[in-house]
Structure formats: structure tokens, C-alpha cells
Amino acid sequence: MRLFGRKKRQLVRLLVVEDEPLVAFDTEHVLTDAEFEVVATVDRVSKAVALIEGDSAIDLVLADVRLADGSGLDVARAARNRDIPVLFLTGTLPPEADGLAEGVLMKPYGPRDLLGAIAAVEEKRTGKAPSRLPSGFRLFAGA
């Protein structure tokens, strides 16, 4: 269904995993302004994995790779086991990340790039080639 030319989103309920408070706040603000539902914003691997493995309905995980209590790669592995796509938002990307996520948006990034990266992941998940890739964003072939 389209309302005023906008198609219905498939990725609506998002989990934000970020241990830098200002980045987490800004990300949540951008997402809620763009009418996404932020299921939770957490700063620990253990909290993220508990939400993923619990009853929370999550459409997409946005995760930093370096977290205070471990690695976002562990969050991505848990999400992958539940067939939940992951978008890494990070400044440092280890080589093994590309088999665990849909893509990466390198820090620092702006609001338009974040929303564009989510849109590109959604297009990829629906079988379409993304029309435009934001600056600092890369889709992975493997995930």
C-alpha cells in the first residue's frame, strides 16, 4: 500500500546496539523522526542477545562492532540465528563481519546516510538492487 507515494516498509522495528551515549541518542532520534519503531537501545552484547533471543519482534539490528562488553559480531551471530538482518554502524570493521551482516555504514555518518543505508538493506532483502548507496555505506554479498 502506498500513501502519498511512499511504499510500506518491511523493516520497521529496529534494535540499536551502541555503547556511545551521544551516538545512541542521535541514532534513536533520527529513527523515531523517520517513523521507525525503536524496540530498544542497548549498550551491551548480553542485553542485545537477550532481546534477539526473547520475544521481541525485531526487523533489523543496527549494531556497533566494538562494544564495552564484547563484540557486535556476537550480536550479529545471534541475529543471524533468528534470520534478523544486521547493519553494522562502526568505525572499525573486522574482515569476518561481511558474512554476518547485510552491510556496514562507517562512522561518522549523517542522518541521511543512516536512513539511506536502511533503505538499501530493505531493497536488498526484497530482491531489488538498491538504487543509490549512501556515502560510507557498503553492502555485503554474503549475508
Automatic annotation (TrEMBL):
Keywords assigned by UniProt, alphabetized: DNA-binding, Phosphoprotein, Two-component regulatory system
Organism: Sphingomonas pseudosanguinis
Classification via PANTHER family: PHOSPHATE REGULON TRANSCRIPTIONAL REGULATORY PROTEIN PHOB, REGULATOR OF RPOS
Any single GO BP term: regulation of DNA-templated transcription
The Response regulatory domain, residue ranges: 13-122
Any one annotated GO CC term: cytosol
InterPro entries, per the entry: CheY-like_superfamily, Sig_transdc_resp-reg_receiver, WalR-like
One Gene Ontology MF term: transcription cis-regulatory region binding
Pfam families for this protein: Response_reg
Modified residues (4-aspartylphosphate): 64
Top-level taxonomy: Bacteria, Pseudomonadati, Pseudomonadota, Alphaproteobacteria, Sphingomonadales
Annotated protein name in UniProt: DNA-binding response OmpR family regulator
